[in-house]
Amino acid sequence: MPEESVEALLREIPVGFLENNNTIFMRLTDPFNANRVAFIVKKVQYGNDLTAEEREQVEKLTASFTDIFTGSLGEVLPVPGAKHSLNIPEGVTFRLRVHQRALTPPQLQFLHGKIDEMLTAGIIERAPPDQVKCGATMVLVQKAH
Fold it and tell me: Average pLDDT of 55-70?
């Protein structure tokens, strides 16, 4: 992909425009699509201690490896044959009743959005109530950066 087309997109396309644009989430079909490259380069967080020249080099390096970055949970690839299991001895019982602290409306909106996104991407799946063996409280914590 021509370097000048990526640089032009970096200047012209605001990140907000790309946030909800599903046409850029094409890691499997066109990982070096100019819109996708611009989105990834803008979303990567670079250190404040870089000079302008260093930052430009890092952005070019990021652009050359955009095929390894994901723009959404839907682009995360499952590991073939991987299965998560807990080695819990037979007969052990856990609490099923959760004393969840109330979440604020924005927290609930965020949480439900992430759960729906993970369900859609196939990262998690719904469990019937009779298969639930343990319940635990959930805490949302804002990232430090």
Answer: 92
